[in-house]
Fold this sequence. Notes:
The chain is an alpha+beta fold. The chain is built from twelve helices and ten strands. It has a five-stranded antiparallel sheet, with helices on both faces. It has a five-stranded antiparallel sheet with strand order 7-6-10-9-8, with helices on both faces. The longest helix is centred in the middle third of the chain and has 18 residues, at about 140-155. The chain is elongated and about 85 Å long. The two termini are about 50 Å apart.
Amino acid sequence: MAKVASIASSGAGPHERATEILDGLKGFLALDAVMLSTVDLTTGARQVVASEGYEDRVSTHLTGGEFHEEFIAPFAVPQEGWPVREADLPVDPLSLRSVAEFFRPAGLRDGMTSALFSRDGRYVGFLDVSSMDRQHLSEEACAVVGHLAGAMANVIDPLESARRLTATLDDGSVALGLLSDGQTISLHGGAQDGLLENEPGIRRAVARLLDVRSTAAFLWPSASSDWYGCRAFRCRDGIDVLTVSTATCAPYALTRREIEVLSLLVEGRSNADIAELLCVAMRTVKAHVEHIFEKLSVATRAAAVGCAVREGILLPPRD
Length: 319
C-alpha cells in the first residue's frame, strides 16, 4: 500500500502511474488480468487508462454499457470503492451474460470490480481484476484492493492535481478548472460576480499564455473600476486552472492606460507601435512610459517588463 501511494503521488502521467500500480498488484495478488479505467467527465463513457491480461472482446465488454447496467450499477457503485466479487453476488454469477459469455469462455473463474470515487465523492472510474484460480481472489485480496481504491481514484481523477494545486488558497480567492471541452468547474470558493461575463475571452487568453509556459499571471478588468488578479496553471492532466482574486485598485497605482502600455512593452512593442495600436500621439506614449518607470521604481524598459511578468501586472495579448 505504501508503494502504491508513492507511485500514485509521483510526477508521471496517469498511464505510466496506472501501469506501474497494476503490474505490482497483478504480481502481488497473482492475478491474470487487471484494468483501470476512467469515466469521461462529459459523456460518462469508460476509457481505459491501463490494462493487462484481458482479451480484446472482454476489454470492450468491460468498458461498455451492458456491463455497467448488469454489474456495475446494481452491485459495484453502491459499495463506493470497496470491491464486489463474483463469489459474493446476491445472484448466480452464471445468470449474468458478462460472466457466462465473456469471463468464463476466456478462462476467468472469478473477478471483482471496484467503482472508484474521489475524495469529494465524485465517481471517477473503475478497477477490474480477474483470476483463473478462484483461490487468488480471497478476502485478503479483496481487502487489499478496497484499501487501495482511494489512491487509484486519485491516479485517474483528472481534477486531482488541480484540486491539490488550489487546496491552500485563502477564502477570498476563487479557482476554476477550464476543461478542454469548454466546461468550467468550480474548484475553490464561490463565483466572482461578473468574472465570466466574457468567459470565451478569458479562455482564449489563458490558452495563449499557457501555450508558451506552464504558469502565467495577468490582470483582467472587471465591469466596475476593480481588477481581477489572475494566475493560470496547466496541470499534468490537461486541465487549465485559473485562480482569481479581486483588487480595488491596480498594483503600484497604475492607471488602466498605463497597464495597457506596460502590457504592450511586455510584447516587445516600440513606442511607435503602441501609439498606433492605442490611437494616441507618440509623446503621450512616452509620457506613459515615464510614469510607469517612476511608479515601478525602475530605470529601463527591460526592468519594467521583468516586474510586469513577475508580478502579473499586465493584460493578456490581444486577439
